Amino acid sequence: MTAPLVRCVGAxxxxxxxxxxxxxxxxxxxxxxxxxxxxxxxxxxxxxxxxFAGLVRVTSGDVSWNGLEGSPRDPERVGLIFQEPALVPALxxxxxxxxxLTFAGMPVVEAAERGRDALDLVGVANxxxxxxxxxxxxxAQRAVIARVxxxxxxxxxxxxxxxxxDRATAGRIIDVLLRVSDxxxxxxxxxxxxxxxxxxxxxxxxxxxxxxxxxxxxx
Length: 219
Ligand SMILES: Nc1ncnc2c1ncn2[C@@H]1O[C@H](COP(=O)(O)OP(=O)(O)OP(=O)(O)O)[C@@H](O)[C@H]1O
Prior knowledge:
single chain, about 220 residues, alpha/beta, 6-stranded mixed sheet, 3-stranded antiparallel sheet, about 30% helix, binds adenosine-5'-triphosphate, ABC_transporter-like_ATP-bd, ATP-binding cassette domain-containing protein
C-alpha cells in the first residue's frame, strides 16, 4: 500500500497569544482524493491547508508527507492556489506559468513548451502573450492553475479559489481543477465555504472551531 500524501495525527496549531486555529486533527490525504474542506469563516480551513503545504509547523501532534517522498514546499510535489490569482505583472501569462520551472533550472524553451501545454489544458491557450492586467479574474485564476499544472504536482491545495468570481465562472474553475487533478493523477483539496463548490467534490470535511467534524477515514 502506498503511503498517504499527508498524514496528520493529533495535529494542533496555536498562534501567538493563544488563538487555537486547529485542534486534535486526524486526517489523511491520499492519492486520488478530491476533498472539500468546509466550514465558516475563522474555523481553520486555511490553517489546515497551510499545514498540508508545510507553510506552518503544527504546535502539537504530528504531520508527515511520506507519500510525497520529499518536501511539500517543492512545487513539483504540492501546487498552491489562493483566492487572489497572484501573477507577476511584468511577465506575460506564459512567462508566469513557466516561472517555477525556470527557477528550478529547466531550460527556457522546455519550460515554455510545458507552460503552453498547461495553458491549453485549462482552456486559455490564446492568452500566453497577454499581460496579467489584460485578462479577467477567471482567466487569471486559470493561468495560476496552469502554473500549478506545469509543475505536475502530486497534490493540489486550493484555498477559496473561486470566492472572488461570479457563480458561473466559479463553476467552470472548479470543473477545471477537477479535470487537471484527474489528468495529473494529483489529489485535490479545496477549502471553501460555498456549498455549491463543496457539492462538486466527492468528499467533504467539515471544520468547526479548528476541529474536523466529519472524516470518512481510519488512520
Ligand atoms: N497568522 C495568524 N496569526 C494569528 N491568528 C491567526 C493567524 N492565521 C489565522 N489565525 C486565526 O486562526 C483561526 C483560523 O483561521 P483560518 O484563516 O484558518 O480560518 P478559515 O476557516 O480559513 O477562515 P476564512 O474562511 O475567513 O478564510 C482564526 O481564529 C484566525 O483569526
